[in-house]
Amino acid sequence: MANNNDISTIFQAPCPKNSFLYNKTLCSCSPGYLFNSSTKSCSFFRVSPSEWWTSSTVKHSNVDDGYKKAIKHQEYYVGISIIALLMWILLCVVVRFGKLGDGRNSWFQIRWWISRLDFTFSSNHWLADQKIVKKRKSELGGTFTIASWMLFIGLVVALLYQIIATLGLEVYTMKATNAPDLISFTNDIELNITTISSMTCSQLRGPSTLVIGTPGSVDHSIVPLSDFVNYSCQNSSLGPVVTLRCKNCPLTYDRVYISWQFFDIQNKFPATAVGFQFNFTTKGGVNQQEYANFVSGTIKNGMKSDNTSITYRGVDAHVLKFNLFPRVHLNVNGLKLLQPSFHEFRPGSSAHDEDKLQSLLHSSKNGLINTTLAIRFLSEYLIEIDDDKRYNGIVSFLADVGGLYCLSVTLFLLLLSLCEMRIKRLRSEDQVMQNIRKRRISEDHWNKLRKFVAYTYGCRLLNEIYNRNEQPTCCIGGNGLSITRIKQREINIQSFGFRRQPQSADEKVFKEGQELSMLKEHYIAPPPTLNEIKGDSPSDVLALQSDLRNLYEYNAMLRDKLISAHIRLTDLEAHTSVA
């Protein structure tokens, strides 16, 4: 920006771009443009919203925003828990459509393990009057047990998040002030106001008085500025900076007004400005520690947020309004610190086009920038800031957890009671599943026993009966044939050496009984198995001897059977010939 403010050497005709000629030889930037001495051109002055900011060395947290954030996340966690709970219940409803069968299918296994999860309501199922309470686990109870724990865990997570999120929050309390509060409230105040222009401090007519109270009211007064505030001016690249400082300022006046002007000087840039920049800082300390609050920003076009072209010049004052909030930080050892805030900018005389600005430049009475600073102490109330005391320790936490658990269990216990009261079949579903499982276990044990007997004694009768679902009568011989199977087999009498003749009914009954007894008596077992001989070891020799002994006994049995069969055939032939 402008460093050399001699207009006779740097800003005369011919005028650069974005400027116009006035007084026949002098140039002025168009409204909203500021002269740049390095490029000797006029550039448009812009202000963005990001150029406004406030800060504090005292850590603050807004309790309202904190609780809103905590509530939002609580709803998120509870929503996830409800969705998981509904999905679990839907899964259990779908599983209940599966057939129990004989207890060997997957549906039974799933439903059985769901019933085993009933460890919360196992003693609270439907019971008839005058019956002893007994522990039982049902599929419905397992479903509601897991559902209650899902809801409980979701609520506990939301509670923990609320506690963690609100531990660092602060509580703001508004308190009416009295005289002792105001007297004890003193801070160091510094305010810097930069008039953004090509002017210098040599064009400043500094403030000399300070107006206390509302001008024109009964309680207003005018006092020398030096009794309260020291001021100074310093040139900067953006323009002259007016600094006001007050050491240990007492908070005893509600409103304070300070005014100063910049005016035209020959061979200097005219008294014009395109905006203002401010930095308001308050400082206070406790226990030899210094804390500060400040607000900074740049303003151009009053309270408007647009970047329209405007240049300030004229007799009407430009008013910058600030508020000071007294705050007592109880969480910082009772620190009393003012919080400044920018309240409003009221623009005075200005021009939005070249014709208006040219007319203001030609008028000698309009050759000034009149600035007024209005500061209001909001001393009617004090804001006390303290830590949030809502969380009272582990006892309070356990009480909250116990309440959530009771809520979750009671809700699903009520649903369980209603379901078993209205649907009688649910009262005995535990016994039904127990009976199916016991039957399956018994069958598995019987199957193991059958295989053990067949393997140990070489009797295949149990295997055949198990496969054909027949009732055993006895075990005959080594292959396990039964009388029932012999009856079902078609007997060819001719294989015994005779042909059956037509007989009466009585003789038919006798013959069938006789044939049956013959089959029983003359049944021939299969030959014995032989052991495999692998070498000349003593055990192999014993096995060979055992095989020979078995073959001998088998041949002797065949001889006896053959003699018996021959005798019976002879008797049958004799009986037939006599008949």
Summary?
This protein is of the alpha+beta class and 579 residues long. It has three domains: 63-166 and 395-434, no CATH class; 174-387, no CATH class; 490-578. The protein contains twelve helices and 21 strands.
Could you name the key traits of this structure?
alpha+beta; 3 domains; nine-stranded mixed β-sheet; six-stranded antiparallel β-sheet; 38% helix
How would the blueprint of this fold be written?
Layout: H1 7-10, E1 19-22, E2 26-29, E3 33-36, E4 41-44, E5 53-56, H2 63-95, H3 106-116, H4 139-166, E6 170-176, H5 179-183, E7 186-196, E8 204-205, E9 209-212, E10 221-224, E11 230-236, E12 239-250, E13 255-263, E14 275-286, E15 289-299, E16 311-312, E17 314-329, E18 335-346, E19 350-351, H6 354-362, E20 368-377, E21 381-387, H7 394-422, H8 429-457, H9 461-468, H10 483-488, H11 505-521, H12 538-578
Parallel strand pairs: 17-20, 17-21
Antiparallel strand pairs: 1-2, 3-4, 5-15, 6-21, 7-12, 7-14, 8-13, 9-10, 9-13, 11-12, 13-20, 14-15, 16-19, 17-18
Transmembrane segments: 76-98, 140-164, 394-418
Keywords: Membrane, Transmembrane, Transmembrane helix
